Give the backbone structure.
Amino acid sequence: MNIVIYLIFYLTLFTLGEVIRSLVFKDQTKIFGVNISVFNPLFFLFFAANTVFFLNFFLPGLNIVYGVWIFSFLILFLKLKTINIDFVFLIPPLIISALLGFSIYGIDFHYDAGFYHLLNQSWIIREKVVFGLSNIMFPLGNQSLYEYLSTLFWISDNFINLHYLNLSFITVFFHFIFEITKNGNSNFLRLAGITITVFGFLDNVGYRGGANGFPNLQHIGKPDITVAVLVIIFNILIINYLVSNDISHINMKLILFFGIFLIQIKPTSMYILLIIFIHFFSTNFSFLKAKSNFRFIISAVLLNFFWVLKNVITTGCLLFPVSFTCFYSLPWSNQNLVNEANKHYSDAYLPYKIGTNPIEWFDSWREVNVNNQIMINFLLSFVCIYFLLKLFTVKSNKKSSKSFAVKTYLWISLISFFISVPLFRYSYGILSSLILVLVVDRSLKFDLSQKRILNNLLLIIILISPGLVVRGYSYINFINMPTNYIELKIPSIQFTKSQFYGELPIKETLNPNKKCWINVECNPEDKQISKREYFGYVFLSEEND
């Protein structure tokens, strides 16, 4: 039942995205030989999420969410006669969606969902942008676009739709890999599609059963796989743009679209600005100088201005919790909170501190969580793919500065991971992209399009590979209850009044870790919070003794 519902969910996003594509990217139907309709769901999700984000400066999110859906379906109805959807093109993503849909039968809330993600979304739904929101607890300072996006799928008290949201990104990812392998107009694209697929298969074998850094399914509430998908798509597109010496401004606009989307969801992904700058510098900033790009550039600048403004309003910092970007003179700014956040990330995830002994640091870091397991499996996969490429591909004799720049960027991406927040679920996109250093200047020894049996076999393998991402217990659960409708509801939990502000969650069987879930009156750390309201806006600040 849920699989059918997810298929309808995906088709709805695809169709609404086709409306956005026809309005915004009307001059472009393909990028590097690939039909850009493969990105339709992402087009809709980007514009819908940013609509909620922007209007939340002036209205509570609930009003906006209703408006977004009504307006979206109204535009769809008005544009219905002009939309031409190739139903053959939809066969691959529907197969992928059906396979990924089995994961619904083994899904649950991620720990952080009840801890702060759902609480963040609840504040967005109930209030206009909140001044000093992070004062309740520092994780609320990490308010990414994913939180605004998730509010669009709060339906009644069933949160299974948030899993459908995650699945839609993974469906686009596998469909994209399928399309670049089948229709990509360069050796790099086709070889990248094949190599990423092989890397995905190797994720299922190895030390302690596998896990090499390839994106996998997460429980509800986390955006890490969404980030990984956007990182891989962005990197493949911009690397191909550079190594193929493309000068199309239309293609660059689409690539920058993914870059903006990515940074809004994960600000620590700003390392991608390096390769964008490399391109702009190598072309004498022609993209920025072109009058035809003026409207796009202004829109991007305004969007990022409001994003930074939102950060200052909710945390007092341009980029929380980077201390030198904070304005501690603001009444809601909290230096102790910034210090607490930085201490947490440093103590819990052990980022490398420049100047310390790298060997001693690495020995300590690899003992955290499953770092050691994933690093060993990644290295095994890297070596395996290296020898496979040596066997089936040839290296270009031409030395290219672009290829060198791309490889440097990919290695710097890995370094940025190690010196920021080196938790491995944050690295899936980086590690999967790092495999591309082996591909950049290589090509197959044979023309794959002339090997029809091998080509079709590869495409079939790509289509069924999403089935390997789904956990075994999900298939078992489906076999045991194939017709059941899966719902995911927040537990009924108890609160007690705080002596300072709001309510404290009570430790009980259904809430052993005393999470707030969706209660905006929750004060989990029993802080002395001052809550005031001016002109319809909530101001939160921490009172010091």
The longest helix spans residues 2-24.
